[in-house]
Design goal:
mainly alpha, 2 strands, 57% helix
Length: 102
């Protein structure tokens, strides 16, 4: 029997509605919509358009909250998140190069 998307529980799969995600992140639902507008979040959507947030989205919201607490504005947060993603890609690439047979 093969697993369907509903049976697979991974960190990228959106399962939380906006009110639950907001509560879990300690934020208002309107903040999550604002962060999406600014490109800081890209939650999954149901066929009807309802937002669904994943575990990774919740982790990202915690990072956003910490950066806001540190005084970083939304465009700055977007830049920080982009640089973090690029650093992760470069780390992965370096790891692959170091494990490649000579």
């Amino acid at each position: 029997m093969t697993a369907t998307r509903e049976q697979v529980h991974d960190s990228d799969h959106g399962v939380y509605g906006i009110s639950v995600a907001a509560e879990l992140a300690g934020m208002a639902a309107s903040s999550l919509r604002l962060y999406e507008t600014h490109g800081l979040l890209d939650p999954d959507r149901t066929p009807g358009g309802t937002r669904r947030y994943s575990v990774n989205d919740l982790d990202r919201l915690r990072v956003i909250a910490q950066l806001l607490d540190d005084g970083v504005n939304l465009p700055g947060i977007a830049r920080v998140l982009a640089l973090q993603a690029e650093n992760e890609r470069l780390r992965d690439r370096c790891a692959r190069l170091h494990t490649r047979p000579a």
